[in-house]
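Box S1 | Example of a co-folding query
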Amino acid sequence: MTGPNEAANMGSSTAWPQDVGILAMDIYFPAQYVDQAELESHDGVSSGKYTIGLGQTRMGFCTDREDINSLCLTVVNRLLEKTGTDYSRIGRLEVGTETLVDKSKSVKSVLMKLFTDSGNTDLEGVDSTNACYGGTAALFNSVNWVESSAWDGRLALAVCGDIAVYAAGAARPSGGAGAVAMLIGPNAPLVLERGLRSSHMTHVYDFYKPDMSSEYPAVDAPLSIQCYLSSLDTCYTRYRSKAASKGDAKPVNLDSFNAVLFHTPYCKLVQKSLARLALNDFVSLEKETRQGIEHLKQFVDVELEKSYFDRDVEKAFMTHSMKQFETKTKPSLHCATNIGNMYTPSLYGGLISHLVVNSASVLAGQRVALFSYGSGLASTFFSIRISEDESKLSSLLSVVSDVQTRLESRAKLAPADFVSTLEVREKAVHASPYSPVGPVDTMFAGTWYLENIDDKHRRQYSRVPVPAVNGH
Ligand code: ACO
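Box S1 (continued) | Returned holo structure for acetyl coenzyme *A
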């Protein structure tokens, strides 16, 4: 029998499943946050440093009741409940995370707990770790499986989650926490464009977590920013060449996309990144054309690799791309500014924000570019087409229709409570035995939480009950 790939290799692509991509997705974030303006005042930094300088409004954080397993249990359980998907329909389960509580046991294996009643243990996939890139690895592995000869016709589930916390200091306001789950299959409303991914991966120590006993990373902040921007340049250049080699008549530039989404360490870096793509577009023009753009004339000879920290270039191209930022990128920052950097789910929180902020009629038929970056480093630029099919789009949007209400119903905690919560986490992270002290009654309905850790480091979880609907 000829498998889908064999058919493709034989010159026919008709046997491939069509429109493989994201069928449904959901986000989970903790039920408490700290206000970034209040944090500025608490930390004694100048007013505006976190809110304007970084572009952050609120930062979600977890008590010791939550860990990476509970975050992923919650988001998977909610997505399958909301979509009415039976656990037996999942044939692959991939997890991307950099929040490790065990050096051997995968988060995926803990998620198998949810599959017990269905009797389904036939699920490929384990965890992927590479800083903030793991979610993209999980997504690509899932899509690849559906498009492969190993596909058995069932759905894949790509899950990503992290608890992003930094030691006290300049990086602390760029934390956050959350998880995203995505159901992957054919005939999707969000279709990954085939043959148009471009990656850049290399070895660098920009952000890493060498201390196994701590949740905090070691960060070379300027290097991490330079690596992020240079990876963006490289991936975008490669994406454009791939598009050209596939026979695209018009060269790719920012006008090729209705929206451009980025991994978001903090929102200001994303605005600079969109400006960076505008700079790439400018540099790729003929010299004569560049000279003709009056307000950018002084940058005709600018070199990409010499401009990462050039203030004049940055300012000019941020102004130049301001309108495009407002329409193509700013809507996707809604979760990022209100939750913070979630690491692996950050880019997919951006995609959910884009879906939540824009109406179905605006979204229908859009082409969306996405840039994924994980320190260390791994990065990819890829694109998604949004279906024009009203019913597919409406089921996708119905799953995320409660995101805004959930964001607003979170409790604001004082900066001092945020700091003391992190101090509790510092002691709790690898303790055994351990009984968490964080409150359960303030968590969202349906949230999985850590019940206890026994003297063999084994973790037990419970779930906040979901209220019955219509008396059922
Ligand atoms: N009002 C307005 N803006 C202000 C104010 C103020 N009162 N004070 C400072 N700013 C601006 C600064 O001018 C600066 O702007 P710029 O980025 O345009 O230069 C910005 O706020 C940040 O201030 P800095 O003093 O330059 O940097 P800081 O020491 O606060 O650190 C940083 C910021 C580096 C982002 C830190 O939060 C960090 O280390 N984060 C983790 C690393 C990271 O996120 N790297 C990105 C890629 S890797 C990843 O995804 C984890």
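The CA atoms of residues 445 and 467 lie 7 Å apart. The domain at 3-463 is CATH 3.40.47.10 (Peroxisomal Thiolase; Chain A, domain 1).
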